[in-house]
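Collaborator request log, item 7. Partner lab (contact: R.S.) asked for a structural prediction of Large ribosomal subunit protein bL33 to inform their binding assays.
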Amino acid sequence: MATRSAKAKDVRPVIKMVSTAGTGYAYVTRKNRRNTPDRLVLRKFDPVVRRHVEFKESR
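Returned to partner:
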């Protein structure tokens, strides 16, 4: 089992994508920290408002 410090420095960490519509809906995904060091913003479907909205990476 990996230690906590090893997980914190993982190349592909698990991130939470939270809806900007304010519904509280979230996706969980992984990203490559070397290719995208900035916070990720994706346009995905929010089933609460039934529209495509921006989802931003939260930490």
